């Protein structure tokens, strides 16, 4: 029974992740951004220091060439800028442009509205417990 419960837990978690992201993507469609692009913008907005392209690729969970193409598009839209790193000529830091801030505020507002709907009837204690469980699973994954 435990094996089935663990399998079911994993499947449900994957389904939740896909459905949540798809719904957010649907709600953000009017902003003219692909899921990959708004995800990069949100990650940049949440990071305290401007990351290098390599760091950003790892944070977002994409390969370097994929991120480079995304950044090319975001740069063409005037939403990000790549800046040289003095101590490493090969590295580029990625920063949000001033034009990106209002767009990110819209993304965050839409995302917050979705979160408010999704967490109806779920207490803060339940959310905290769920986050602790996820953190432990992630820690176990990092060990392997």
UniProtKB/TrEMBL annotation:
Q: What is this protein's name?
A: MarR family transcriptional regulator
- Please indicate which superkingdom the organism of origin belongs to: Bacteria
Source organism: Aquipseudomonas ullengensis
Q: Which InterPro entries match?
A: HTH_MarR-typ, Tscrpt_reg_MarR-type_CS, WH-like_DNA-bd_sf, WH_DNA-bd_sf
* Gene Ontology molecular function terms on file: DNA binding; DNA-binding transcription factor activity
According to the entry, every stretch annotated as the HTH marR-type domain falls at 6-139
What PROSITE patterns does the database record attribute to this sequence?
A: HTH_MARR_1 (PS01117), HTH_MARR_2 (PS50995)
The record's section on PANTHER family has: TRANSCRIPTIONAL REGULATOR, MARR (PTHR42756), TRANSCRIPTIONAL REPRESSOR OF EMRAB OPERON (PTHR42756:SF1)
Presence of keyword Translocase? no
């Amino acid at each position: 029974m435990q094996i089935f419960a663990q399998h079911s837990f994993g499947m449900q978690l994957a389904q939740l992740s896909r459905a949540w992201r798809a719904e957010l993507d649907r709600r953000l469609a009017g902003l003219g951004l692909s899921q990959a692009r708004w995800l990069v913008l949100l990650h940049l907005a949440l990071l305290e220091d401007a990351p290098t392209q390599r760091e950003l690729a790892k944070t977002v969970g994409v390969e370097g060439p994929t991120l480079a193409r995304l950044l090319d598009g975001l740069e063409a839209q005037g939403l990000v800028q790549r800046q040289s790193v003095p101590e490493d000529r090969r590295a580029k830091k990625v920063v949000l442009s001033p034009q990106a801030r209002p767009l990110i505020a819209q993304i965050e507002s839409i995302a917050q509205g979705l979160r408010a709907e999704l967490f109806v009837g779920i207490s803060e204690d339940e959310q905290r417990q769920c986050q602790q469980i996820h953190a432990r699973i992630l820690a176990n994954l990092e060990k392997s």
